[in-house]
Amino acid sequence: MIEKQLPHDRLNFLKISVYFLSFLFVLKVVNIQILNYSHYKGIAEKNKTQIISQTAPRGRIFTKDKVLVAGSSPSFSLVYFPVGGISAQYAENLAGSLSKYLDVPLDKIRKRLFLAVKKGSPVKIAENLSDHSMFLINELKTIYQGINIITEAQRFYPMDGFLSHLVGYVGKISPGEWKYLRDDKDYSMDSYIGKTGIEKRFEKDLKGKDGGIYLEVDSKGRLMQILESKKSVIGSNIYLTIDSKLQAAAEEGLKATGSGSGAVVAVNPLNGAILAFASLPDFDLNAFVRGAANKNFENVKEFNYATQGTFPPASTFKIIVAAAALETGKIDLKEEIFCPGYFDAGSRVFKCWKKEGHGPVDFYKGMSNSCDVYFYNLGIRTGPLNIEKFAKAFRLGIPTGIRLPDEKSGNVFGPSRRARKKSYWFIGDTLNLSIGQGEMLVTPAQMAQVIAAVANRGKFWQPYYIEKVVSLKNHETYVAMPELLSSVNFKTSTWEHLRESLKRVVLEGTGYSAAIKGVDVYGKTGTAQNPHGADHAWFVAFAEIDGSPSEIAVCVLVEYGEHGSSSAAPIAKRVIEAALRNKLAWQSDSAAARQVEPKEKAKRQIGIKSQSNGEDAPQETGTSGAMEQAD
Amino acid sequence: MFLQKSKIKKSRIDWFFIGIVAVLLTIGTISIFSSVVSLPNQLKIVRTHLLALPIAFIAFFIVWNFNYQVFQDQWKIVYSAMIISLTAVLFFGIADKGAQSWFRLPFFSVQPSEFVRIGLILVIANYLDKSMGKIKEFSTVLIVLLISLPIFFLLIKQPDFSAIMTMLPIVLIMLFCAGARLFHIFAIMGFVFITVLLPILWTMIDLNPELAQNSFINFFYNFSHVNWYLAAVLAILIFFTYLLWFVLSKFYLNIPKLYFVGIISVVTLGLFSGIAVKKQMKYYQQKRLEVFLSPDTDPKGAGYNLIQAQIAIGSGGLMGKGVFSGTQAKLGFVPERHTDFILAVIGEEMGFVGIILVMSLYIFLMRRVINIAYLARDRFGYLVNCGIFGMFAVYFSINFGMLLGLNPVAGVPLPLLSYGGSNLVSTMIAIGITQSIYSRRYALA
Predict the structure, then answer these.
(1) How far apart are the CA of A98 and the nearest CA of chain B, in angstroms?
(2) Which domains does chain A have, with CATH numbers?
(3) I need a surface site. Which of A183, A485, B16, B32 has the fewest CB within 10 A?
(4) Measured over all CA atoms, what is the biggest interatomic distance in chain A, rounded to whole angstroms?
């Protein structure tokens, strides 16, 4: 009876509506709980976890003789965990105290603090806390909640500027670098990254794996519990081919010179391994790590004289001229050429560095006394084309491939180059070329390669400075393989005569101050003219003991050093002594030998056209004006 | 098509129904305890809940043993009690979250609007039962509205929009089930629609002034206050409606004038009440409306809650993270987790299985209420059950819809699961009434 009066179908309709609605709900629940489960799970995880990353110690860098060049030191950072519902006044007080204790501007602290409160997540307030600040902050921790100090590893260079150009430094990741690395889980926006040198080239090996404290935080970012503390993994260690004794000798030697600037490159002629690589002035690598604290980077001299400094090779180029003359047979060793102190080239007179002249000069005397007039003649006989060819064969004009940033290739000039430029070649050019002046420009690294090739009779090795990279588990992830770039095949007599002449340079010529008792030192001095100031001094040398293959070749450039014989050669001597220290252990008077007074003061005359101020400045042609050569 | 009486076990107690309620209460209690673990006032919540449970059971048993027809006979007392309690709460009540809707008692607080909801069902059921002969007349529908109006007015005064939001659909469902003409119901719905939609639109413009750049939207904004614009809009509306009727009558389409008058009055009344609602709206309610419309606009503000609730449910997966192991709710990402967002806790900790279980239990519950409506021995019982079904249906739709991002966050709890003493007791009273109807299905009138 009731059924007939009441519209039961309406209630039924509502029931079906509820079923339909439920069906929609089930679809939606399936969608978010089953199909998009991982998405929501990820968000939930992210929601509740906060990672305080701890920078892993970077891999250490050692020299060949296991001296630490780059290591890590602990650094302390102040992290603020926003405590729920803090008042503006509270934050203000905290910022004030922190600013006072940390010695950081109030504005900066306040900004970071309020950011932490606003974001509700921990924020790094300050890095590299000093011991004093640490002490004060420990006191603050009892008054204010949320202050935490975390330990991180920081790059540390125990010897400040030692090997600075090679090792390079680390710094905060830049926006440009971040663009590339944002997808890399090992990097965060406040990571440190290798900026130059080995630090940059081997960044991936040195980096290691950052650790971190995974915190469970609530919706307000309050620390609930520490979920996991992941230990950081130290990066791979790098062993250099550099010998710290040689490096120290080179750096100290350069520092002792008047200008204190220049470069020393010592290589092992047997494989191209670099034993010393000094460029002065150097810079304190630690300054970059401390970063924000003392940001006076403008004084930093990052200019690398060894690979970026181009200078005229000057008399050191006579090695190549002599090699060209000997190999092409354009020379009679016995023939004496009279040096009146000048060379009449018809339109102009080219002077020898010794005004009064050397008198009659044969090949060995021409080399040992570096007689310019002899080499003018030799150059004309050999021909500029041959000299240019040999200069290229000695790999001048192309980078050594040492793998350092912005390596300069220098400049080889000669008739064929001039012809390509559709310009003329004059006799004066030939004369300039013969004595390594004019447009010829080389880097110390290139000259080191040249003298090493003379030492090993024609082999040009790729210079390298990384011996091996060793991972934490002692796997050698990288081992240097000496690479022969090219070689020159000269007649044996060419090498013998060349070496004999270089030996005489040290024994009885301009390189006398590099002489070491019991060691056969072969060398050549050079003085590159500099119209802007004092001349630059060159000395290239290699040494042998008892005719065994030479294991040390060195190139020294002293900017404004004036004379190769007086300023550059003693440095080379010190480096060679350091290299052969084990074999020379019995020799006690090596230190005394260093103090030998120069026998004669070499004179110099300032050239007017050829210029070289250590930078890669445009070079004027040497076709006009008298070129004079000293030393 | 209707259920055969013989198919229902001739028991005085519907054990299946009681079982569903018991399981829901158990799940609810576990979820509440789990969700309050990290709350500062967790002890108070647990204590209140443990206190409310026996009170709810006692209330259930008392109401169950009462003959429900008493409520029909004494409807005046019920109605007076509703009016008096809602009036009293305005004077003696305490405010919480911007609404003055609580009576402070020694151990707990009571929210009269929860009980008023049941009372309204009873009173309207009584009226509909008595005027069943004139159910097709508009006056009946109007009187039902007039009965509810004082209640709604007192609720707006608190203001407790959530309560109105749940009560109004119940009234409509009861009218629908009683057999009122659909046109009348649609007229009321249209009126409500305008009353609700315009404040939403104006709120949106208030919160996003750049929207007013659009001249079309700005046109609507112009009559958000009683002014000449409003008068002009109404005049134009009346004119065009008349024109429509005039044109249609020329084509001998005899549509009763009543429909046109109805449309005009619905729109007019809707506009005015919309303006009234807008004036009554508190800022947080405006904010809630806005979130409903675009949950992503303010990820750290009100929309944040909705998003975080979804994350909580989604991260539960198939089996959930385990009871007491949820992180989203526990770490405070989901607010109101023991009340409005209890479903997020269940979804996170019990997973898909838990949600589907709860949903199925709810559907069985509503099915059972409908079955009992069919079985009721009189019209009053039928109508009361329709109202109680409507109540569960509204809570169910709003809660599940809210958590899935479909409806506004309205502060509507999920009965039997959410924390809330008044809601629990009133729900158990409603279930007691249903059981009373079930138990007395054979007794003669």
Answers:
(1) 29
(2) 58-235 (3.90.1310.10), 244-594 (3.40.710.10)
(3) A183
(4) 147
